[in-house]
Design brief:
Two copies of one chain form a homodimer. Chain A has twelve helices and 15 strands. By secondary structure, chain A is α/β, with parallel strands linked by helices. Chain A has two domains: 244 residues, Alpha-Beta Barrel (TIM Barrel), CATH 3.20.20; 111 residues, Sulfite Reductase Hemoprotein, domain 1. In chain A, β4, α2 and β5 form a beta-alpha-beta unit. At the A-B interface, α7, α8, α9, β11 and α10 of A face α7, α8, α9, β11 and α10 of B.
Amino acid sequence: MHQTRFFHIGGVPIGGEAPVTVQSMTNTDSRDAEATLAQVKELAAAGCDIVRLSIYDEECIKALPRIIAGSPVPLVADIHYRADLAVMAMECGIAKVRINPGNIGSADGVRKVASCAKTHHIPIRIGVNSGSIDKDILRRDGGVTARGMLDSALMHARLLENEGFHDIVLSLKASTVLTTVAAYRLAAAETDYPLHVGVTEAGLPGAGNIKSAVGIGSLLLDGIGNTVRVSLTGSPIPEAQAAIDILKAVGLRKDHVDVVSCPTCGRTGIDVAGIARRVESELSDIRIPLTVAVMGCVVNGPGEAREADIGIAGGGLSAAGGSAGGEGSSYGVGALFEKGKAPVKVEGDLAAILIARARELAKAKEEK
Amino acid sequence: MHQTRFFHIGGVPIGGEAPVTVQSMTNTDSRDAEATLAQVKELAAAGCDIVRLSIYDEECIKALPRIIAGSPVPLVADIHYRADLAVMAMECGIAKVRINPGNIGSADGVRKVASCAKTHHIPIRIGVNSGSIDKDILRRDGGVTARGMLDSALMHARLLENEGFHDIVLSLKASTVLTTVAAYRLAAAETDYPLHVGVTEAGLPGAGNIKSAVGIGSLLLDGIGNTVRVSLTGSPIPEAQAAIDILKAVGLRKDHVDVVSCPTCGRTGIDVAGIARRVESELSDIRIPLTVAVMGCVVNGPGEAREADIGIAGGGLSAAGGSAGGEGSSYGVGALFEKGKAPVKVEGDLAAILIARARELAKAKEEK
């Protein structure tokens, strides 16, 4: 577990023992307050704890107060090169700034940014991507390396540390998973700054989800990462769900129904996929941890779903081998099993039976 | 890197220095030779190197010769409890058997299976899921643990080792990523058997892909895993693509076009997603490693895509801040950049320009 400094981004804690949070970034024009605010709200509704937006000129600054006032979550200003924009964004009430101090151009600019951030208790994220490694370091290493990414980030950080500023978050996103994971592992070993974790330019949903899940997920499994961003090309909204699914996968989000369902095989006699989809969608409002299993057969079903709170297995209670091939319907005979109880034979709309009983269980658990 | 034994599953090598292979399993009724063979072929076309099928009775055995004869890939028989079915499947020419010797019921059965497998050079996979841990071990540990899963697998393995049989593959799939990863890490530390890696009952595509990518991907990143299975509820076909995407993400499959595309932000002036989708689909036939970048703007574009062989960035060569918000079209002005060359201004159908040039590059690389 990577031990880090602890501070707040607006009302959201980061680092220390704080939960890992989900971030995304708007792709509207930040000069357009209404469109940007609408997307910020959409991202918050999708599960983002923090939202970033690009602030690239004075027009964006003009739109900022309206966006900040309407946002349900803390906002981060993404700024390149210009210290004056960073100071203006902080004076507007932005909760965090992403800027690389080494690119601001002057020591005076760095001083102003650090001093303003200190006054307003606004953290700064230093974000080095595989493409923004310092030129001297790139030459030293002969190309993009994890070491070079971290050294670049630490070079930027030093400029802030020299001003007595330490509420720093680092990100080290490469476009390959291997370099990304190596860079964050180095950072976790060598610094105590909270880490914003992601794979940059992961690509389109599909392969991009997989890249992000491997990169972010493997770091989180090792206790590395304090806030995460899945970067997908296109609408940012699916990024939130993908990030939440990664947090669920590594056990960092438990307040939901986890559907465990078998891949089906020649023994399957019921519509496992259809039942699992109904369970997933009809129980999506439940906010306590509950594992619900949908298994194709009673041969392995109840056994394989041992960790589930409740589950259903197709095909009655006979332990004989399979019979029907492929997939059947939601109507039929099944075995309903609950933790610590003997399985019970059920008949009818298996999905409805399972969902109703799972909801009762959730209610009972909630009342405890 | 986990050092393992090396042998073959039919013509496909496993373990040692062999490449990591992709597996899936049919969900047709294995008694139905035509339907099963059709799905085996579909899985092979989708990229599966090895396909498993459930063999649960004598009717399945009858269908087996026809399926084996028509299959373009080695097949694995998934068998529970019955040594006689395992022996019959091996005599039909199956390339591998998945069976847990401790559940066969008799020492004589184990002897027959081991002897037949030895004669025909057929490896055996021992597959312990979180639900099939030995009852005594489950009691010892008070529940499902990674240790318990491995100990159960080793108990089964010992029965084969006692017969002088060592062409063993182990799998230790739990339905949670945490237990899965912990179990395989233990196995890699303590045994030299090749490992078949997967998260069992990962659920529906979407969250199931994410669970599998985190679990399988993080193990592969650490050099653990010799063959992989993504288990998704529903059709097995998408499992192959998900598995291949995981292998690509960790750098184990490189013979393809890797599309690196930015998540777009307020600076984006071109249709990044549309161009990326066209690049991905129109260049999907290329079988050499080529990284193609699609970036929204020239501010970060070429720099962030430094590792790409070729790429395009929207908005011409001016390095000014963003202008248009949201997404535009594929037609417009952009900067085409290639490794080691100065960017060139291009105008027109940016996707078509990029695709044509990438294809030329691929051809030149191939001819080298």
